[in-house]
Amino acid sequence: MLGQMKEQLLVKDNAIKAFEQKLSKGLKDSEHKLDELRQQNVQLNEMLQRYQQNEVSLAEIDNELNRTKNENDILKIATAENERKLHELEEEVRSQKEQLERHQKERAAEDDRWKLMSAREDELTKLWQEVQADNKVQRQIVKRLESELKISNERNQNNESETISALKTELQKANEELEEKVKTLKDQLANKEKELKSSANKLAKQKKQFENQQSRIRDQSVEIEMLRTELNKHEQHLTNLQNESQAREHESEAEKTKLKAQVQSILQDITQIQDEMRIVKESHDELEVEKLKLEQRIENMQREAQDTSDDTQHWRDQLVDTENKLRLVELKLQKVETENSQLAERNCLLEEQNNRFEKQLAERERQKDTEEANANDLRLQLDSNEMTLRKLNEKMSEILDENSRLHNTQELMDHDYRSLQDKNIELEKEKLMAEEFQIDLQEELEQLREHKLVLENKLRETVEQLQQTEEQCAEQKKNTEAIEKELKEMIIARERLENQNQIMSAELNELRAVQSDDEKLHNLMCEQKRRIEDLEHELIDREKSAKANIEIVDKENKHLNEKLGTLEASREELEVTKKEILLLKSQNEELNRDLCILNKELKQSRYDNQELERQLTPLKTLEQEKEISEKEHTTLRDEINKLKEESKMHIEEAQKKALEVTEIRHQLHNSSEINEKLENTELELEKMRELEKKLRANAANDAELANQKIHELEEQLHTAKSDIERLHESNDSIQVEMDKIQNKNELQVQSLEVKIQQLKEHNEKLQQQFASQKVDGEKLANFEQMQIENEYLNKHVKQLETELTAQRTEASSQLQEVQDLREKLKSLQCELYVLRENAEKHDAQLAEKQKEIDTAENERTQLREMLTNEHAELERQIVHTKYITEQNDAIQSDLLHKQHQLTEVEQQLHDMKAEFEAVNSTHVTDVVVKTKEIDSLRSELQQITVELNAKAQLQEELDALRVELAEYNQLKELPLSQATVENGQKLILASDAENLRRINEALQRELEDLKHKSTSEITELQQEIEDMQSNARHMTEKLAEVEKLHSALTTQQVFSNATADQESLQDTREIATGGGISKLKTEELLQQEKAELATKLREIMNEVRDVSERNLFLEQQCENYLILEQSNERLKLQNAKLSRQLDETLVSMQHNEGITANTEFEYLKNIMFQKQKLYGGREGSISSQLSNLY
């Protein structure tokens, strides 16, 4: 038995040793795993520190983002201000546009007035001329009456007294009527001069207004440029901010990627830790199983020990040792479990942190999206601002253009006004000259009567010439009818040609369809060529005949034009003889008409030159016509020069005849028969005039008929030209079709050549077959058939070769024809170039002639301006005296009116002073109240700073308590019972959460109260500032009105001094002395009033400056209130975030009841630490209260 027991004990010892070895290995493995877990904890702590650092960096980024937001807000405010300024500028521009439109309307009205004035002046000139004509008639009547008086004196000496009295009365009546007409005309002229002066004054005022508007527009353009520079600066600042935001976004994205990588690594670590925890749990389960087995064995051993009481103390010692070892293992297992629980808690915290990070990232992404949207809005706003600026620039450019146009129109109006004045002066001079010239012309009348007898013979000759020209015109009509018939025949032939071309095109299509009938094609082509050649010859013959007819018509037109020129010259000589009786103005008018006719003809010649470039064949004829027109112009100018020379000759002859008339007048007293002869000659002259008129009418009708015929011929020429152009076009189309036929023939030739080559190849093959089949004697019949086929094929090949040669010859002939046509075209182009050069030379000559005409017109205008200037100077001297008297009366009435206005202004100033003093008193009281409120706010701010300092001290105490708690936790050796600790911690946390919520609610209420107070105070201050600004504007407006009145008073005083000087010259010395004393008194009173007004103005300006300084101070206070509001809103947001985090912690506490109090406390402590780093304000009080609670 003992041996068995010993053996059993040995077995048990061996089992115990093996079990101890297993335990030692398990302990070593667990220690190794604990070391690894510690290392992992260290790594996790490092990760947490990095994460905290990342949070700090993110907080900094948030701060920077807030700064950028604030800057963006500032920029938005700036852009809004710029937009407001732009709107204001646009409104000003609109107002200026409206003013400009008004000025334009006024100018249009003034232009209409000027036109009416000019029309009236023309009417007056006509009336003056009529009056002069009446004067001439009356003078003639006077002369006749004088002659009759002389005759009656000789015949009836008895009735002299009666006839003389009757004649005197008639003369007096006529003179009185003339004087009345002259007076009415002078009055009308004076009224018109007054109107002109008033309009000139209005123009001067409008000039001043226009200059003021231009200065305003320049100032506005400078302001717009300043705004543009500011906008460019803002845009650059925005671009910089955008670049910075993009860089920050890139950095944040990089940090996001890093954080995501870190989160992924943490998740991987968590998965590894979870796997290791599973392994540890499995090992723990195995250890528990082994423990149960050991306990069973121990119980068995105890039973055996009870059975065997002879057990030794050695076994007891071993059992004690094993029990101690088991206790140590249990302690280690408990430590491992606590560490595992801590790791689980940390894992939970990490998961929560990851969730928070994800939320924060989502929020930041949203913020970025919002920022991007804001940036896009800003860009859109900038684009819209740029568009508005561009529109404003365009509007400004348009306004400047309109201003320049208005300025130019104004200068033109001034120039026109000066020219009108000069014209008036010239007209007066011309009137004087005309009156002198009338006297000379009356003397020349009698000389010209004799000259008319000579001209009557010439008229008869011209009548005969006209009859001859009429006969020639009838012949030309016949010729033109024949030409028209020929042209119609040409049109019919052209239509026939077009029909033949259509038939030929149809035949060509049929020939293309039938390619096998080569001989028919060849014959048809030959026939078509012959037809085309015949048609071309016919066309050439007809063109030659048409050209010959056109040349004949041109020659006849030349002869007719020459004859018409001679007739017109004779007619102009007759007209000149009549017009020499009238004034020299009639000659100038005729010259102007001739110049207009020449200008028209020049325009027509230019238009003809433009048509010359389009036309080819009729260019020579048109050149001949131009040469004829140039000759006519030269002839006309020569005739005008001749007429001038003849007029000079006539004037000299008239002077000679005037001397003869004087001698004849002396003889008239003695001869009455001569008077009768003169009357008869006058009657004959009148009859001759009537005949001349009839002849002129007939000549004009004949000229019109000739012109109509010429126009018809020109139209026929144009139609012939168009027909020729159409024929050219048809020839071109035929050439194109011929080219197409050539191409098709070439293609057919190529196809025939290909067929020939194929047949040759077939022959060669047949010959090869024949050579191979010579051996076979049986196939001799086939051989003979093959020979026959070869002969037939050779004949066919020869025919095709002949056709090829024929087609090639035809193609070569067609090519030659095409080359000939091209050479013709080149020659025509050369002729065109020559004609263009000739046309350019002709244009240059016309330009030179026009320059000569312009110089003549300029000389004429200068002479007129000289006359008008002299007339205007005379009129100014007459009107100056009247104007001075009217101004004196007007100035005196204005002085009385302005004195009344001065009294009214003084009363208004007194009223304004009283209102200003009342406003100042109310403003001073308001300022005192506001200063008190500001002092109270400052004291509140100081209290808040004191509270913040106290909270900082509490935070330091909290940190010290944390250190003490850490030391206390290290000193603890044995853990308390988990149930009691968990219950106490739950109660403590619940009470802490309630306290925190209460504190948060109290803080939020305080913040809302502060916000309401600050907003109400700010609104009140803003209302006060607006009231002050409105008062200041009102005062400035009143000051401006006072200054205007002051300036008006000074001007009135100047005018009064001037009028006083003039009146002193006019009045007597005694009245002048009395008036001087009264005026000195009035001047002293006015100077005293000026001094009083200046002192009042100074006082008002000082008060306005004080008000503006107070407004600035109040604006600064408002800005301080706004800053306080922003800080309060930030504190609100921070408290809201804290409350959310606390709620989340409480929720996590309810879900994880197994977490110990120490870990929860550490978690809350970490949150508070982070928030202190980020914000460091009111959160210190919360952390201090939490520490006090714990």
TrEMBL record:
Chain intervals with Basic and acidic residues compositional bias: 246-258
Q: Which GO terms describe its cellular component?
A: Golgi apparatus
Query: Is the Transmembrane helix keyword given for this protein?
Result: no
Q: Name one GO biological process term.
A: Golgi vesicle transport
Q: Which domain of life is it from?
A: Eukaryota
| MF terms in GO | small GTPase binding
* Coiled coil feature spans: 20-113, 543-594, 619-1045, 1083-1148
* Region of interest called Disordered, as start-end residue ranges on this chain: 239-258
- The answer, when asked if Kinase is one of the entry's keywords, is no
UniProt entry keywords in alphabetical sequence:
Coiled coil
This chain belongs to the protein called: Uncharacterized protein
Species, as recorded = Bactrocera latifrons
